[in-house]
Design goal:
The chain is an alpha/beta fold and 530 residues long. The protein has helices spanning 15-18, 21-55, 64-67, 93-100, 119-133, 181-199, 214-230, 247-250, 253-259, 271-281, 302-317, 335-355, 368-379, 397-400, 412-430, 445-461, 473-491, 493-498, 501-513, 522-526; strands spanning 4-6, 85-90, 106-110, 138-140, 146-148, 157-161, 168-174, 177-180, 205-208, 239-244, 264-269, 321-327, 359-362, 436-438, 441-443.
């Protein structure tokens, strides 16, 4: 009998295919070996945040042996050599087929920000990927249209993203202790698919989210080594791309690549989570760290350019891929909206390709050709541009933290948008949908995080908006009530009640208005999942 206790709300069809005795034993061993160190590193995050609050500063590490050393990450395997367009999305059957068929080189199969971690999604996502690798997946939509996989050589390569270190999987426990969601997602995927992927000429490839230090990267490296040894998979078969989506990780890019060098594939610039991390770490550091409306913070902002230029410089110096940020636009039936959105996406991808990135993200198959054109124009037939070392880049700690270099300020419309987007996203997340279309953009958890964080920051900083109003507890409640009425009027009373919109609204305001700052909104939100 396995040491893992399965306490699921329901027994799902084919659940036993995922939770085999051998797979659960593999999870139990991962848990025993690595959860204690995970716990220590989460505690270290808290200490580091306290130090940032005390000093109001961050700096690069004094690791001259790493920063000045002559080392490179492992060469990219053939399946990860050309990454010029990557599509992201959850792992339901429809998205699985559409993403693999999209024409993108890579599919980020997401168990994290674009997935609501319901039991059905956790298990169903594993089944979708296992079925895809065995070519036994298809999908028929409500109109009767059937979607099937293209030939293997036309499919995107899967790079799977497990949950971050901070999230647990409450339905799987060992001796009463929940197994970290990261180990559940990684462990089940690796156990069931690593050998199959190798036989297909690919391998178990991963995106690692929410890392805050090189020590957390070191822990992942130890997990990879153990997993490969336990299943007799050659060491170095795993490849990992790390999302640099926290301000603390931005100061440790070289060290993160160094810790993972046998398994490293690249780094990615994750925009919204990065802004969320800045607010989280410097939320009480004074007016110089107050962010304006989220839509006013573009990738051309000086501190964002410093971050992305440093990422390209670091990756190419060490032989790793540099992957750009998300184009979240969803094609609309309104041609005027499409024209303007496509113009912005093309300009964004042209900038990334011109800056030296080797690829970039899109959220919809309709944007794959747009991003591909931008990178084709720069790369041509080359798989990447890692020969562009960007030795012109000289980024200081002050450059990364120059938040006050922006001219934009918080606005009333920005507050309304934060409430609207945060409420709309959380309503869908609590209903089990993690990738959500909001105002013609495909949003994920990072959207809700930056929304609630900005409300919290503006309130605690006493920000005066463009309409002359000071952001206070009462003012936020007044504006929020108006926005909720607007949502109810838009969708209708019956849909409002059936969709349990007030539950999402109450959660957003509780977190945004609380005197203490919750590190991740998904922690209290997870307790509300059915």
């Amino acid at each position: 009998m396995s040491a893992v206790t399965v306490a699921a709300p329901t027994v799902l069809p084919r659940q036993e295919e995922v939770l085999t005795e051998e797979a659960l034993d593999f999870l139990a061993e991962l848990h025993r070996r690595f959860t204690p160190r995970r716990d220590e590193l989460l505690e270290r995050r808290a200490h580091r945040r306290a130090e940032v609050a005390r000093t109001g500063a961050l700096d690069f590490l004094p690791t001259a042996a790493v920063r000045d050393g002559d080392w490179q990450v492992a060469p990219a395997p053939p399946a990860l050599l050309d990454r010029r367009v990557e599509i992201t999305g959850p792992t339901d059957p429809k998205m699985t087929v559409n993403a693999l068929n999209s024409g993108a080189r890579i599919w980020l199969a997401d168990f994290e920000d674009a997935s609501s971690p319901t039991w059905a999604n956790v298990i169903g996502g594993q089944l979708s990927l296992a079925d895809a690798f065995r070519r036994r997946i298809d999908f028929t939509d409500e109109r009767g249209k059937r979607y099937e996989l293209k030939p293997d050589e036309e499919l995107a390569t899967v790079v799977m993203r497990p949950r971050g270190w901070h999230l647990d999987e409450r339905h799987l426990t060992v001796e009463g202790r929940a197994i970290p969601g990261a180990l559940v997602d990684f462990g089940l995927y690796f156990f069931h698919n690593a050998a199959r992927l190798i036989a297909l000429g690919k391998g178990p490839y991963f995106y690692l989210p929410k890392l805050e230090s090189h020590l957390e990267a070191r822990l992942w490296n130890e997990v990879f080594l153990h997993a490969q040894d336990a299943l007799s998979i050659p060491r170095g078969t795993v490849r990992a791309t790390v999302l640099i989506e926290t301000i603390t990780a931005a100061f440790e890019m070289e060290e993160i690549l160094y810790e993972l060098r046998e398994h490293a594939s690249g780094l990615n610039a994750g925009r919204w989570d990065y802004l969320f991390s800045i607010v989280k770490n410097f939320r009480d550091a004074g007016p110089g760290y107050v962010l304006p409306d989220r839509n006013a913070v573009t990738m051309t902002a000086p501190f964002m350019r410093a971050y992305t230029d440093l990422l390209v410089r670091t990756c190419h110096k060490r032989g790793a891929h540099a992957i750009g940020g998300m184009a979240a636009f969803i094609p609309s039936r309104d041609e005027a909206v499409n024209t303007e959105a496509f113009r912005k996406v093309r300009a964004d991808k042209d900038r990334e390709a011109g800056d030296g990135f080797d690829g970039s993200w899109v959220a919809h198959p309709g944007l794959v050709p747009v991003a591909r054109e931008s990178f084709d124009a720069v790369l041509g037939d080359r798989p990447h541009q890692k020969d562009r070392l960007r030795e012109d880049v000289k980024v200081t700690a002050a450059d990364l933290l120059a938040i006050d270099s922006l001219d934009a300020k918080p606005t009333h419309d920005g507050l309304c948008n934060a409430i609207q987007v945060g409420t709309r996203y959380l309503q869908s997340w609590l209903a089990g949908r993690g990738a959500v279309a909001v105002f013609n953009l495909m949003e994920d958890v990072a959207t809700a995080e930056i929304s609630r964080s900005q409300i919290w920051q503006w309130l605690n900083a006493g920000v005066v908006l463009d309409n002359g109003e000071t952001v206070t507890h009462d003012y936020v409640c007044q504006v929020a009530a108006d926005q909720l009425v607007a949502i109810r009027d838009e969708i209708g009373e019956d849909a409002f009640i059936e969709g349990r919109w007030e539950r999402a609204y109450d959660l957003l305001l509780r977190i945004a208005l609380d005197e203490s700052y919750v590190d991740f909104l998904t922690l209290p939100a997870y307790e509300l999942l059915d």
